[in-house]
Amino acid sequence: MRRRGLVLGLLLLTAPSAGSQLVPNDRWLTFETSHFRIHFTAPLEEQARRAAANAELAYAQMSRELVPPRGMIELVVADNLDFVNGYATPFPSNRIVVFAHPPTDASGLRNYRDWNALVVTHELAHVFHLDRARGIWGLGQKIFGRNPLLFPNAYAPAWVIEGLAVYYESRLTGGGRLESSEHFMTARAAALDGRVPRLHELSPGTSRFPGGQVVYVYGSLLFDYLAQTRGDSSIRDFVERSSRTPLPFFLTPVSRSAFGMSFQTAW
Asked: How confident is the model at residue 148 (pLDDT cuts 50, 70, 90)?
């Protein structure tokens, strides 16, 4: 995700491109679990049921890490795109879409025991993170509903949003990108070459390797470092504090309160 203007950025977050929209005239089937409504077409039933089982397991694990989201989560399993991964949004309701195409040689997506579980866990981490709205944001949602402008954690830079999700994908599945050597090799090579990007350079991306993957690589490594040095509970504290700050663009005081040091200092 690249940061643009406020409204445009939120629209990009909550409204995937037209090419990724689901085909409405397909015959969709639905079943429910304790926390999810799973939507799928008949040929994808096996993958949908596997996603449902993985989602409930991830939900139970994630609930011990972060405050659970509100209400049922819509989980859509689709194959309308030959695309790896999926996406998540808190607007207009919490929703995860998983594309039923496991990775082949996609960089950073090779280290997994169960690809379906990895993607579901990553996207569920986004839901747990982005759904939180406290203080003036929670009051605003009580008055105006789930307005896309009233999700404070959605204002975070891309390296926070994606770094947090990659951290949890690895912490909860035992696989994922933090368990792969590629993230560490990328950062080490940049350090040896004297080309580690500055923190404010991550979200705009870079034309240098690893390109748009910088938010995943460095964001997850930073959260992993903070969890190891400040404790896993500090991540939860950060999410809770950032969900109620009236100035969600400015994370220096929030990170300093949660971790005992600012993101800039940790970097």
From this structure: very high
Q: Is 2 contained in some domain?
A: no
Counting every residue written for the chain, the total comes to: 267
Handedness of CA 217, 221, 224, 226 (dihedral sign): negative
Alpha-carbon distances of 166 from 12, 23, 108, 145, 174, rounded to whole Å: 20, 29, 11, 29, 12
> In degrees to the nearest 10, what's the CA dihedral of 69, 223, 162, 96?
-30
E strands, 86-245, where?
Answer: 86-89, 95-99
- CATH number where 82 lies: 1.10.390.10
Residue 49 lies in a domain: yes
Which of the four pLDDT bands, split at 50, 70 and 90, describes residue 9?
very low
Read off the pLDDT band of 83 (50, 70, 90): low
Give 185's pLDDT tier (boundaries 50, 70, 90): confident
Q: Give a yes or no: residue 140 inside a domain.
A: yes
Domain boundaries, position 26: 15-266
Residue 178: alpha-carbon gap to chain centroid = 14
Is residue 9 in a domain? no
The tally of domains found in the chain comes to 1
